[in-house]
Amino acid sequence: MKTQLLPADEHSIAQAAALIRAGGLVGFPTETVYGLGADALNPRAVLDIFAAKGRPADNPLIVHITQWAELEPLCQANEMARKLADAFWPGPLTMILPKKEIVPPEVTAGLDSVAIRMPSHPVARALIRESGCPIAAPSGNRSGRPSPTLAAHMMDDMAGRIPMILDGGPCDVGVESTVVSLTGDTALVLRPGGVTPEMIAAVLGECQVADSVMRPLKEGEAAPSPGMKHKHYAPKARMTLYEGSPEAVSARIIAEYDALPAAEKGLILAASGHIALYGQRNTADLGPDEWAAAHNIFAALRQADADGVTRVLSESYPESGVGLAVMNRMARAAGFDLVQV
Ligand code: TXA
Ligand code: MG
Description:
Blueprint: E1 4-7, H1 10-21, E2 26-28, E3 35-39, H2 43-53, E4 62-64, H3 79-88, E5 93-98, H4 105-108, E6 113-117, H5 122-131, E7 135-136, H6 151-158, E8 164-167, E9 178-181, E10 188-191, H7 197-204, E11 208-209, E12 238-243, H8 246-258, E13 266-270, E14 283-285, H9 290-306, E15 311-314, H10 323-333, E16 338-340
Parallel strand pairs: 1-8, 2-8, 4-6, 5-9, 10-11, 12-15, 12-16, 13-14, 13-15
Antiparallel strand pairs: 2-3, 3-7, 4-7, 5-6, 9-10
This protein binds threonylcarbamoyladenylate (TXA) and magnesium ion (MG).
């Protein structure tokens, strides 16, 4: 299969919508990362998403809509959902709610809840509207690879496997949406993202964060979200995250880097303000703050792979605000190899 990479304009969006209606798969931009979409109410099309990604069958998909009226047939809404939708939709927030009959079990991997998101990206919105159906879409990477934040990343992973990718330029947020479960009495963040726990608590009065967000699951522990079980975001290189004062962290990273055997190719991930500390060593600049780091992290991990890097040594971010989302992705990429210095 040849994969068409088309600039996202009126004409290509109409073509993509026709593909979706016919049960096909389309790569498309959202404000978080690129997604791999299909008609959420077509079980065969949904199964094709799993096949194209090599995604484990037990990891459910997010259903994308453009307005509140489209949510009601899909799930049982509640007061928390209405308040969060008012505050943050359209935007990088996914809500887990009890599913209704119409949602095929292929989408939810057999769970009795469904993940719903209303993206803000104009191309995503136009595609859903013109398709005339809710669109199931995981991130558009091959399973286990960093999520795509450029159409070129999606081409790298999906060329030859899907008929079309819409190019809408770089994604704004750069990490996947916040996933919040609203099936209990209080909101519970299962995956941190651009809508932070602090922002959710400001609207609902309370918001919990699943503690598996910043640590590996224990042997035999049930995952609150199936996505937590699987290896994720992993570069080919071995990666370690260093936490501590900026001075101590940079000194330790430099020592580790300089001690690498000749056969290893090292890469240091650092904030803009620290890059000069590393001199001529191989660095990737994650930008001035944690929002920039969210925007840049997946591209940096992909570049590391493309450059044949075997060892990634990374600075850390405070686990507050969007820093929690950055640290969640980096900790998973590092297989939770966190070192306190
Ligand atoms: O920003 C995003 O959310 C992107 C764009 C394309 O919208 N999509 C995305 O999808 O990141 P995906 O499939 O890569 O991640 C969905 C996450 C997974 O961790 C999955 O386990 C979790 O949401 N999830 C989906 N349905 C769930 C459910 N019913 N209960 C708990 N977790 C669920
Ligand atoms: Mg994903």
